[in-house]
Design brief:
With about 350 residues, the protein is α+β, with helices and mostly antiparallel strands. The protein has two domains: about 210 residues, no CATH class; about 130 residues, no CATH class. It is built from 14 helices and nine strands. The strands form two sheets. A six-stranded antiparallel β-sheet has the order 1-2-4-5-6-3, with helices on both faces. Strand 1 and strand 2 form a beta hairpin. Helix 8 runs antiparallel to helix 11, helix 12 packs across helix 13 and helix 12 packs across helix 14. The N and C termini lie far apart (about 65 Å).
Length: about 350
């Protein structure tokens, strides 16, 4: 089937005309068309994929992440993810499962309510269910190569999903979840190895089943990394909201590095108290750590009350028994020590000034 024919299926799905047999389904005026990766392996290099959105259980967990030892148990119920995987197997009967870090990967086309179209990957890996894409600017910056979407896709691709706001990404994720819930799950059985150990996942007679083969109360280091990015995105959105029309006009001009940093500092100071309130709203120790790093990186003065609050929320004793791998414990401990040292040095530097 040609890409142009998939676009027609995609448009119909976005309008509420699903075609389950042809792997097309929609929700909230989003349209999704799924194919196994064999369909595009001659078109796209999947090695340049980057994650831009979590789906299913992981966003729920990150939203409720508080650093509490019981948080792991809240995350343990994978029934929702398993149901999504079963629905995906109905849409893509040829999907292949493996026991590696990547349980599965399928290719999809996405149409937004604005009529924008982009290719993406839907997979289950260390970050659980996630959507990935090709961020051309990042590929060219970090891999030092010129990267182009193939002609067959380029003429239909009208948006870069990496430009989506946090709210737009959440809307995309929830719409994909709702679309998959419309599809009757197919039975499957697979054993998958994640950061906690081996886990048996299955749909048996339509019922999600999961069982940890080596069940231990640990966090993977990726949980901390994922949470950090999510909280940073929230803080950056708030900072961005402080921009005036004059500020936006200045940004469109060629600002010097010093002018840009000065503007950014002013924006952060405008919403200093709001950033603290936003961190409180997350109910997470990690949110305060991310806020502290943001202020340190921008050279912003951290007042004593906030410094004490951040220090209280970045103690190694609260995390030392939660990481399974010795290398992860060493990495996390060193990161926290360095972070706390920077916080105390920030106070000394401000006193010296």
């Amino acid at each position: 089937m040609k890409i142009s024919e998939l676009i027609k299926l995609l448009s119909k799905a976005a309008e509420g005309k699903d075609s389950i047999a042809e792997g097309a389904v929609g929700s909230n005026f989003f349209g999704f068309v799924f194919r196994d990766v064999v369909f595009v392996e001659d078109l796209l290099d999947l090695g340049y994929l980057s994650q831009f959105c979590n789906v299913g259980t992981m966003p729920m967990f990150l939203h409720n992440f508080s650093g509490d030892p019981d948080a792991f148990f809240k995350y343990s119920d994978l029934s929702f993810d398993i149901s999504c995987i079963g629905s995906l197997k109905t849409l893509v009967p040829t999907i292949k499962f493996c026991m590696d870090d990547l349980l599965f990967e399928v290719w999809m086309l996405v149409r937004t309510p604005k009529g924008e179209v982009f290719p993406a990957s839907f997979y289950y890996g260390k970050s659980r269910l996630a959507i990935g894409g090709w961020n051309i600017n990042t590929i060219e910056l970090f891999h030092k190569i010129k990267f182009y979407l193939p002609k067959e896709l380029n003429e239909f691709t009208t948006v870069n999903p990496f430009d989506f706001t946090v709210e737009e990404r959440d809307h995309l994720a929830s719409s994909l979840e709702l679309a998959l819930q419309k599809v009757k799950p197919s039975d499957f059985e697979v054993t998958f190895r994640d950061e906690y150990g081996d886990i048996f996942l299955a749909i048996q007679e339509g019922i999600p089943v999961f069982k940890r083969i080596n069940d231990e109360d640990y966090w993977p280091i990726e949980i901390i990394d994922q949470g950090s990015w999510r909280y940073l995105d929230l803080f950056e959105e708030l900072i961005k909201d402080q921009l005036t029309l004059d500020d936006k006009n200045r940004l469109e001009a060629d600002l010097t590095s010093l002018e840009f940093r000065t503007l950014r500092k002013n924006l952060i100071m405008k919403c200093y108290d709001k950033l603290i309130d936003l961190a409180y709203q997350q109910g997470s120790r990690l949110a305060f750590q991310v806020l502290g790093k943001l202020l340190l990186n921008e050279g912003i003065k951290i007042f004593d009350d906030l410094r004490r609050l951040i220090l209280d929320n970045s103690r190694w004793i609260d995390e030392r028994d939660k990481l399974k791998m010795k290398k992860d414990r060493c990495k996390r401990r060193n990161n926290l020590i360095n972070f706390r040292t920077r916080l105390l040095k920030n106070k000394e530097d401000m006193i010296a000034q």
